[in-house]
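Researcher: Let's do a round of design. I'm pasting the structure tokens now; please hold your answer until I've finished.
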């Protein structure tokens, strides 16, 4: 008779209840039935304590980071709004000179992008239990093509994205078994691929 698939929660909020239930049932009698050692039961209790603390810390850190980011963004908006008002006042002044605009730094010419050599920049990769998130920098491009591979040699087009981040929600080929994934990006200008491919991104994913 084939064995049934083992369930382990992928949602973060379900992990501690799952572990606690396992511990409670062992304590209630299943430990003796299945010869579960005192060492394992002690390890399980430690896992519950340590994991609970780690999750609580991560949540607190995230909330603190969110608050700090909100304060930062509010201040940046205030600074930008105030400075742009002063710049507009200067430009409307009867003595305004373009050379002064250059000196003050609010006249910056952006060099044209070389569509033959422009290369996508990946600013971050986050591997979660339900997806792989790839943050990329848009610059003056219209989007990116995302290529994916399981061996780092043969790539296929996974999708196209016009707004970062890109989310890969594919399930693992073999459920419950971690798999290595490779990604690389190429910019789009209009509907046409341009420039060079990004550096290869390598991750290990477990998405059931």
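Researcher: That's everything. Go ahead.
Model: Designed sequence:
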């Amino acid at each position: 008779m084939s064995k049934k698939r083992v369930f382990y929660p992928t949602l973060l909020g379900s992990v501690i209840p799952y572990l606690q239930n396992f511990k409670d049932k062992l304590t209630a009698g299943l430990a003796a039935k299945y010869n579960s050692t005192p060492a394992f039961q002690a390890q399980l209790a430690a896992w519950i304590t340590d994991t609970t603390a780690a999750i609580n810390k991560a949540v607190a850190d995230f909330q603190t980071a969110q608050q700090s980011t909100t304060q930062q963004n509010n201040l940046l908006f205030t600074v930008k709004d105030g400075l742009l008002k002063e710049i507009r006042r200067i430009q409307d002044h009867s003595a305004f000179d373009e050379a002064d605009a250059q000196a003050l730094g609010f006249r910056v010419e952006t060099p044209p992008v070389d569509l033959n050599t422009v290369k996508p920049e990946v600013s971050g990769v986050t591997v979660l239990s339900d997806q792989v998130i790839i943050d990329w920098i848009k610059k003056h491009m219209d989007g990116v093509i995302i290529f994916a591979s399981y061996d780092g040699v043969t790539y296929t087009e996974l999708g196209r994205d016009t707004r970062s981040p890109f989310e890969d929600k594919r399930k693992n080929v073999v459920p419950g078994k971690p798999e290595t994934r490779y990604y690389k990006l190429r910019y789009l200008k209009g509907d046409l691929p341009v420039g060079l491919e990004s550096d290869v991104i390598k991750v290990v994913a477990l998405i059931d």
